[in-house]
Each structure stands twice: as C-alpha cells, then as structure tokens.
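Is this the right way to post structure tokens for a design question? Let me know if I should format differently. Anyway, here goes:
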C-alpha cells in the first residue's frame, strides 16, 4: 500500500542504553513495520556506553587501539550490517535510528538518505554552526571534522540504524577510531569525528539537541510530528528477552 497522506513520525528518546539492546529493539520494530498498515515512522534517539561499531565500509585497521588496549579499556566491538565505516560510540553522541517503510511512501534509498542528511544539516546549522555536505557522500562536516556520520541499513525496504551526531563526545576516544578513513575521505578531511562542542563552546544539552534534530527530521521527512516519548513500550519485553538469551548462552 502506498500512502497519499504524509506519514506521522513518533520519536522515542531512550537516553543512555546498551548498544546491543538498541539493535534488538530496532530489529523488532523493522519486523513490525514490514507487516503494518499504519502510516507511521518511528525514530529512536539514544546515547550508548563506550563501544565501537564497524559498518560495511569499515575494517579493524581503522581502529588504532591494539587488542590489549581494547581489553584494558573494556571496549567491545560489533560488526554491523549498516553503511559507513567505524563509529566510536560514547555518551555525548546522539544516535538517530529512523525505522522507515520506504515502499509505503515511494521513497528510494538514496532519497531517504538525502532527507536524513538534510535534516541533520539543518539541525546543526540551527545552533549557529557552519557545516556542509560533500558531493557523492553522506554525512555533515564542520571545521573540526565529521560532525554527523550516516550509516543506514535497509531490510525488505524498511530502514534501521541511521546516523550518529557528536555533541560532546570525548575526543581522546574519538581520536582512536577513523570514522572518516583516508580511502573514503576528501583531501583535507579529518579522519576522526569532530563535535558540536568543538565548533561552538556552548551547545545545548544532548536531550535538547535531540529535540531539535527531531523537529528538523519531521520537516525534511515531510511528516506530521506525532509524539515525543521517553523510552519505548517494547523495551521492557526486549530487555527481558535479551537477558534470557544471554543466560542460555552462558
């Protein structure tokens, strides 16, 4: 079914949440979106504890930590079927996960990524930060480097994963991961992610940044802003399933 009316988008702010748990929640939402007749988009907004995810364009060589250093810092890595390279996740980084049934709205994958990128660009510039996009690439750059990396996944025409906006991430950790590796970068690019605080000394708190991002995404997705909710009603069930799965594994 293709909808003629603009979809409604609901935002769920999860706060600081385990990366694997958030991936499990996304998988459940993707599954439900595939069989849904509702004209709604769900977008999760979250922060993650320190860890590293590696996308389809990433490799172990883009992580400067040795294995011993990763173990000493208790830094786990995850190979994820999303676009993009490596991402160093930390508190202070806003993870943005839109679950969009593309076919229902006649969106192409490229069209969706352009909308996502435009929403992030507009949100960043609303803080008075000069930023830009690059031809043929997805992301938003500032003077300090890559401010927002984009790495989406599409399964049966439903999106997951999405984008990562560095608000106030610890640069001593970001410097050890090449989110913008030389083979993917343009001349003069920083290999690591910058941050809003590096561009502007006084950005809003991350929850306020999340609200600004939500407003701009609703606009660029041409959606009716449905709701802003703390947490997600499926999260307790997903958490219990994850705990049970881990108990069986060990």
């Amino acid at each position: 079914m293709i909808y003629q009316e603009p979809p409604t988008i609901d935002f769920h702010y999860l706060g600081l949440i385990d990366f694997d748990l958030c991936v499990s929640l996304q998988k459940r939402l993707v599954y439900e979106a595939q069989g849904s007749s509702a004209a709604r988009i769900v977008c999760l907004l979250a922060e993650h504890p320190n860890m590293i995810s590696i996308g389809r364009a990433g490799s172990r060589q883009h992580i400067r930590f040795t294995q011993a250093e990763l173990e000493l810092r208790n830094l786990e890595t995850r190979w994820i079927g999303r676009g993009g390279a490596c991402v160093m996740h930390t508190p202070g980084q806003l993870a943005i996960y839109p679950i969009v049934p593309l076919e229902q709205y006649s969106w192409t994958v490229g069209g969706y990524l352009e909308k996502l990128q435009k929403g992030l660009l507009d949100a960043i510039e609303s803080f008075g930060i000069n930023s830009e996009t690059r031809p043929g690439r997805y992301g938003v750059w500032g003077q300090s480097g890559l401010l927002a990396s984009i790495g989406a996944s599409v399964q049966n025409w439903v999106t997951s994963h999405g984008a990562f906006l560095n608000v106030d991430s610890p640069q001593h950790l970001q410097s050890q991961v090449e989110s913008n590796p030389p083979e993917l970068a343009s001349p003069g690019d920083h290999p690591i992610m910058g941050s809003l605080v590096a561009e502007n000394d006084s950005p809003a708190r991350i929850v306020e940044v999340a609200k600004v991002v939500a407003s701009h995404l609703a606009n660029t997705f041409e959606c009716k802003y449905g709701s802003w909710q703390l947490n997600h009603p499926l999260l307790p069930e997903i958490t219990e399933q994850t705990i049970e799965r881990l108990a069986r594994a060990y």
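Format looks fine. Someone answered above. Worth noting: The radius of gyration is 17 Å. The longest helix spans residues 109-125.
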